[in-house]
Amino acid sequence: MVLVVGAVVALLIGLVLRPDPPRLPERAAGDQALADAARTAAGDRREALAVALVTPDGTRTAVLGAPADAEMEIGSLTKTFTGALYVDAVERGEVEPTTRLGDVLDLGDSPAAGVTLGDLATHTSGLPRLPSSPARFASSLWAQVTGGNPYGEDLPTLLEQARGVDVDADRDEPVYSNLGFSLLGHAVAAAADTDYATLVDERISRPLELGSVSVPRSADDLTDRAVLGRSTAGRTMDAWTGDDLAPAGGVRANVDDLAAYVRALLDGSAPGAAALDPVRDYAGDEQIGAAWLVTERDGRTITWHNGGTGGFSTWLGLDRDAGTAVVLVSATPESVDEAGMTMLLDQTASERAEEAR
Question: Is 132 a residue whose pLDDT tops 80?
Answer without folding.
Answer: no
